Amino acid sequence: MSDSQQSKPDPLQLNPTPMLDDLENGPWPSFIKGFKETAQRTGKTMVRGVLDQLNYSYETRMGYWKGGVVGVHGYGAGIISRYSMISDKFPEATEFHTMRVQPAPGLHYSTKALREVCDIWEKYGSGLLSMHGQTGNLQLQGIKAESVQACFDELNQAGWDLGGAGATVRTGLSCIGPARCEQACYDTLHVHGKVLSYYSDLTHRPQLPYKAKFKFSGCPNDCTNSIQRSDYAVIGTWRDEIKINAEEVENFIAAKGLEYLVNNVVSRCPTKAITLQGGKMVIDNRDCVRCMHCLNVMPKALSPGDDRGITLLVGGKGHLKVGNMLGSVMVPFMKMTTDEDVDAFIDLVDRMIDYWSENGLDHERVGECIERVGIQQFLDAVGLEATVEMVAHPRDNPYFKAGDYTVESEKDAA
Amino acid sequence: MSDSQQSKPDPLQLNPTPMLDDLENGPWPSFIKGFKETAQRTGKTMVRGVLDQLNYSYETRMGYWKGGVVGVHGYGAGIISRYSMISDKFPEATEFHTMRVQPAPGLHYSTKALREVCDIWEKYGSGLLSMHGQTGNLQLQGIKAESVQACFDELNQAGWDLGGAGATVRTGLSCIGPARCEQACYDTLHVHGKVLSYYSDLTHRPQLPYKAKFKFSGCPNDCTNSIQRSDYAVIGTWRDEIKINAEEVENFIAAKGLEYLVNNVVSRCPTKAITLQGGKMVIDNRDCVRCMHCLNVMPKALSPGDDRGITLLVGGKGHLKVGNMLGSVMVPFMKMTTDEDVDAFIDLVDRMIDYWSENGLDHERVGECIERVGIQQFLDAVGLEATVEMVAHPRDNPYFKAGDYTVESEKDAA
Amino acid sequence: MATERIWKTIENGPHALDPFLHPVSIKNYGQWQYHERPRPGVLKHVAKSGDVLYTVRAATHRQVTVDIIRRLCDLADRYAEGHLRWTVRNNVEFMTSEAANVDPLIAALEAAGHPVGGTGPSVSAIAHTQGWLHCDIPAVDASGVAKSIMDALFHDFAHEEMPNRVRLTTSCCEINCGGQADIAVVVQHTRPPRINHEILANVCEMPSTVSRCPVAAIRPTTVNGKPSLMVVEEKCIYCGACFGACPAMEINHPDHSRLAIWVGGKNSNARSKPANMKLVAHGLPNNPPRWPEVSELLKRILAAYKAGGRDWERLGEWIDRIGWKRFFQETGLPFDKFMIDNYRHARVSFNQSAHIRF
Amino acid sequence: MATERIWKTIENGPHALDPFLHPVSIKNYGQWQYHERPRPGVLKHVAKSGDVLYTVRAATHRQVTVDIIRRLCDLADRYAEGHLRWTVRNNVEFMTSEAANVDPLIAALEAAGHPVGGTGPSVSAIAHTQGWLHCDIPAVDASGVAKSIMDALFHDFAHEEMPNRVRLTTSCCEINCGGQADIAVVVQHTRPPRINHEILANVCEMPSTVSRCPVAAIRPTTVNGKPSLMVVEEKCIYCGACFGACPAMEINHPDHSRLAIWVGGKNSNARSKPANMKLVAHGLPNNPPRWPEVSELLKRILAAYKAGGRDWERLGEWIDRIGWKRFFQETGLPFDKFMIDNYRHARVSFNQSAHIRF
Ligand code: SRM
Ligand code: SRM
Ligand code: SRM
Ligand code: SRM
Ligand code: SF4
Ligand code: SF4
Ligand code: SF4
Ligand code: SF4
Ligand code: SF4
Ligand code: SF4
Ligand code: SF4
Ligand code: SF4
Fold this sequence. Notes:
The complex is a heterotetramer, with two copies of chain A (about 425 residues) and two copies of chain C (about 350 residues).
Chain A: H1 18-21, H2 31-42, H3 45-60, E1 65-66, E2 79-80, E3 83-84, E4 97-102, E5 108-110, H4 111-124, E6 128-131, E7 138-143, H5 145-157, E8 161-162, E9 173-174, H6 188-198, H7 200-204, E10 214-217, H8 226-229, E11 232-238, E12 243-244, H9 246-256, H10 258-264, E13 274-277, E14 280-283, H11 293-297, E15 302-303, E16 308-314, E17 328-334, H12 339-359, H13 366-373, H14 375-382, H15 406-413
Parallel strand pairs in A: 9-10, 10-11
Antiparallel strand pairs in A: 1-3, 2-4, 4-7, 4-8, 6-7, 11-16, 12-15, 13-14, 16-17
Helix pairs in contact in A: 2-3, 4-5, 9-10, 13-14
Chain C: H1 23-27, E1 32-39, E2 42-47, E3 52-58, E4 63-65, H2 66-79, E5 83-86, E6 92-96, H3 99-111, H4 142-152, H5 154-158, E7 168-171, E8 183-189, E9 194-195, H6 197-203, H7 206-212, E10 218-223, E11 226-231, H8 241-245, E12 249-250, E13 257-263, E14 278-284, H9 292-308, H10 315-322, H11 324-331, H12 346-349
Parallel strand pairs in C: 7-8
Antiparallel strand pairs in C: 1-2, 2-3, 3-6, 5-6, 8-13, 9-12, 10-11, 13-14
The complex binds siroheme (4 copies) and iron/sulfur cluster (8 copies).
């Protein structure tokens, strides 16, 4: 394959990629097929170079990209730069930068807008995209440094902005929520839009100890994986009672049988909040922990209550360095209906980000920071009351600085 | 009360102890009443002094004992020495040392032997005893240093030996087991006796990083609290099937009703190993985790299987410094029937104690030591295979030194 | 007593068991079939041989005397074939094969001030520790707290009306020799030790004191030209471990050393796995001779458990079912920020889910 | 491209949503009543207004091209009123209120190489990461592994035969951008980084590299008179975090960087709380282009789950019920000592009970 880089006059002619070719088979869509198609149609040699280098990676079982610094005017983030470490071998792959573009909430597109993106991208870049990155970006993969600014300007004119990278607020992710889902307890899409617009500056200019991610799930099913994958997981919930459509319960039992109800609903409720009483399904809402299971099994019969809002879990992230962290409850319930509600939410998160900015170590996520300084200090700093919902159980060790009880007791002792 | 120590010619006359007197009331046995009785009968002024100092502690809400060094010939442990910090105030309480005596396994006594202890103790000591200390010692409380050796010699002639203190193997504790309990899966009493006799030297002479405790429970009900309170928790169990007396199951249902069986047995099995099938109670022993619950509720109908032995859990202890530790499974199953079985057990524990002796830091219990060095290293050192029973679940972080797969793979690569 | 010593120590370890076992135990050793509880405080074990052994369990003060023990021996001689034993919770047990002995024995025990009970779903005797009577580091008395509590909970020692067994412990310093329990009363210090620099160099081994601290808050320093130790107060978690190593680290204080209540500890493997107990109240005053605030709180917790717990549900299992939120509601105890863990494994105790009871 | 720039950036953040929403979504926004799944890959949502919205979900390659996207746009124009969206797992979704559009759309998608499925209790598309195609630190390719696995598991993408949804991720280095999943395939390094001292001083900021190490194994040193870094190999846990900070810490190796399988991760709160995934196999060779050892193992695990799991039981919940011992038995995977945690919270994962399945 090292000879695969001999001068190739015809840009439409691909080099042999024997290792990759095998990936053109099988029922699952083949990215190799796709890349080859675009390379051959457009004659973009960058794609050919990337295929060649990738084939070489497959042969040697090593990667060959290194980072660098590429950006757009005024921003400090949003482009992931990639230079080939073996550009002597694969000069066509010398540069292969990615632009992280923030899609609309819920990853919705009109064909019109998407075609426009394709056109701009074909004009300036490789024509390869990743839809989507795990954080939620529309990743335009493969552009040279010299084309980045012009490409961005044109995208920006069409309403697109870059996402985060490095020590910034990152691009958010929201579930489809109210656009299609009966379980949505708040407007994930508009809250996502509003919050991330508010944090544009922090998205574009690294000023934080490390990354900060938001994910918005309309209910505890958490279709955005927010609990593990975001520092600020905004999960819809309700405070009042589950709404029961008695007729649909009857229909369900008639259709599926009582045994199905017992085995798949009653006995699966994690807190045994559901019982059968006189052949009727009864929910003791005081014991319901809003796990969603019964609503998932019986979507026609059961729905979230009317007093809806969100639970905020803070601190989710990957395992670097402390081991994987799931977010934990920081605000058990908050309304999220009006603009004022969203403002109050932003206000609270601002305090959290401020505290972390000032106290976080380099490369320390907010969850790690809380763990290090102790949650008490964090709660005091951001002005939150400690509540029992924050814990699975109270502490099991006596290693704490208990409050100062002096005043009254010294009075007694006097 | 400081004037309560004016010269008192009559040893049978107690000083006022207004704070303590209140504790003579109420239905629960009163230790103050008891102390006063003995003081007044025997005229032992040490007891009067101790009551006075205790009353002073109640008034000032502070303790006034300090340690020192008191021992018997050849031993480095077994006496807890106590000198009053305020002997100027309470000269009669100047010395108040405790002798930790190892009782028989299961805390059994004959009246003959116990009277003998009382007589020796009244002769040399205060006549106060603590039956028993939390670790399991018969604590003879209140003796002067000058009397300790003679008292011990007389006790030792009657078959009594001292227990541990400081960095030693400590006195063991065993449940009543085969002497009275239908659940006993091994002979807690004889194994206790044999193991602790074997460790006499380590009990009497501090040579370890810190204390090491053994507790012996005949079944997973763990009536000695071994899992939390001992470094080596030896808990009886069985490997085959629970024995069912079908007739007694019927009787149980007849007497208590089927609903009682469902609510208190079937639905309480932690792994749902019990089901009702055609009105009969069926146990899937593959799912039974030997929790004991069903056997506890139906002792006539259900009994442990025949293939009995023990599970060894290692590392239980109080919360200093790492937070409370419950022992964890180190040997899922080991026969404990013959003398050879006990020898094999001692042999294994010897290896653990050796490893810990060599690798433990000062004041580090074996559980903390394992946690610090990593369990892999400990298992290798003591020659145990890792098994899935040792964990609640496999690791959830990738932070381990995975094995070296070089050999075969380099062959492949060559 | 400086006579010449002629005895050569026999290092036998535990006392020989065999002479101490009740004859019926010996005969049916390891051959028991089942047991029943004819009434609170009495067990009836039946052996495969058909033999029957009655056990009468009675309370003791733990801190006893030769007089008390001799009286118990008298009863054992009269009603229990000359044998008696203690349980791991300081109760005394008399065994007899004579059903006819049971009632007179109970009467005699109660007359002698030893109430009968502690079996089955009752509140058994408190496992307690040394306290001001004997230990060198206690902030409270143990026997007095235990006596006060058991006076208050007496009804439930003598009756089997709880959902399941209730085990209590009290500990007279934060070290907690009493161990885990359904409910534990443990000293909680609320400020760092004050260092007695005058005596420190003389009475303490400094390196081992330094290494005793769980959070490395102790550092060597010089005070008035003498080597001594200092405590970094921001780090110190008021645990008092250093005081055990060095009496100059004065942690105890009549007002600042207070009492905390812990619930839900469990050692048995029945149903749920063993569990550590959790903090539910702290800052209770150290109020001898009766510590009424403590008994008051224990009564409240036990009343809620008694009312809400299902048969066989241990206290912690009851809370697991109803949730901690309701535990605090039903006992009327306030939850506060100190109850959120901030020690080594803190994260494990956080609510890492959207599971919330509203 | 060095023309003068006249456009002034508008920092709007996410693209405006409204023009992108399907008209039926707009009309019934937040007013949905329930949904059904008429067949695998198709959802039918019914609004309170009575409106119906069909969704057809199809697989994509994630690593797509303008050609592919334009083709999908063609289909959206034809069958979905000019709108389309992506799911968080790289599936594309077309929504239409016309029931009649569903079948032709499915046919057209499959003809274009986009299989329809991934709904309900199926194996949805793998969430995967950059790999050799783009990232600077991968030890494996991501798209290739994902493609190979999905080819192998294809039947279960197109059918709803699993006990519950199955979410897979793959990650191309130990950092695991793919995140938690029912089953995850993650790179596992098996030896410390080899340090390229030649380039280190030039390409790396040393203090931040030192502080990146989770176990403080990196120390400053001098090599050939130049400042560089060294790794204390006893401490190093082969995580590769330093490589992300400094390309001279060469952790990747064709043989020593291997693949590990993790199971039982769960993000949803349905029934059980969210859970971290657990290690069940490691040391799998890095074997392009098809990594057959990985697919083989995944098939085995999924077959056992499919056979034994109850309706609605996620993979981790199934294991919780049957116990880890049986998981290893039924999948035939060997348990080994590396699967016992020895990191920060290790103790929490030990079996601190006598609960044992024999
Ligand atoms: C006598 C004693 C053992 C000894 O060698 O001294 C003992 C004896 C019995 N225990 Fe126990 N247990 C004894 C301390 C314990 C302890 C430890 C403790 O109290 O500090 C525990 C662990 C408590 C914990 O989890 O923290 C203990 C947990 C059990 C259990 C499990 C209860 C549960 O559901 O969690 C049983 C099973 C039962 O209740 O049927 C049990 C059952 C029994 C049985 C029924 C066993 C039998 O079949 O003979 C015995 C009669 C109990 C009764 O009181 O009704 N025993 N038992 C101890 C009496 C203590 C006392 O004076 O109150
Ligand atoms: C006497 C006794 C309390 C009682 O009144 O029953 C006791 C008394 C002391 N314990 Fe304890 N412990 C006693 C049972 C326990 C237990 C319970 C058990 O053994 O079942 C524990 C919890 C289990 C464990 O071993 O961790 C216990 C955990 C401690 C600890 C904390 C150890 C830890 O690693 O967390 C210390 C502190 C230390 O060792 O430095 C300690 C230290 C002490 C010292 C030596 C305090 C000191 O440093 O000076 C106390 C001597 C008091 C005295 O005046 O006699 N004692 N101690 C118990 C021993 C009596 C006996 O031998 O029968
Ligand atoms: C479209 C999508 C949201 C989006 O905005 O993109 C979505 C849509 C729905 N999810 Fe989801 N989920 C989506 C990703 C997720 C994820 C995240 C992921 O896949 O990475 C999760 C969390 C998985 C986890 O725990 O790790 C997720 C956990 C659920 C659950 C909980 C399942 C459980 O029992 O644990 C439900 C409830 C259910 O299955 O009825 C649910 C239910 C649903 C429903 C039925 C909600 C509704 O009433 O409309 C939707 C149709 C699902 C279907 O496929 O049958 N959705 N759902 C995502 C489709 C991904 C895909 O292409 O496969
Ligand atoms: C592109 C993407 C993978 C993908 O192909 O989808 C990605 C790629 C990288 N991640 Fe990631 N991460 C991506 C989503 C994630 C996620 C998932 C998520 O956001 O939902 C996680 C887990 C959640 C979390 O945030 O912890 C994730 C956890 C990490 C970590 C570990 C962070 C931790 O604290 O545990 C690192 C390491 C670091 O930041 O130093 C990292 C670092 C990186 C770097 C910057 C590697 C590096 O240090 O050079 C990768 C750049 C690759 C490239 O060439 O583009 N990436 N990374 C994802 C971002 C695309 C997007 O913006 O849409
Ligand atoms: S998270 Fe809830 S609201 Fe959002 S798509 Fe999933 S099920 Fe619907
Ligand atoms: S939502 Fe979950 S916790 Fe609430 S009643 Fe339904 S199954 Fe039970
Ligand atoms: S631990 Fe088991 S064998 Fe021992 S007394 Fe308790 S119930 Fe009986
Ligand atoms: S002993 Fe416990 S786990 Fe086993 S069947 Fe009985 S209740 Fe279930
Ligand atoms: S709890 Fe503390 S004060 Fe009480 S006996 Fe134990 S070490 Fe001494
Ligand atoms: S009280 Fe505890 S934390 Fe404070 S200095 Fe002493 S040992 Fe350290
Ligand atoms: S998992 Fe590792 S190699 Fe793959 S994209 Fe993320 S950082 Fe890069
Ligand atoms: S591989 Fe990980 S543990 Fe090893 S030196 Fe690098 S960062 Fe530290």
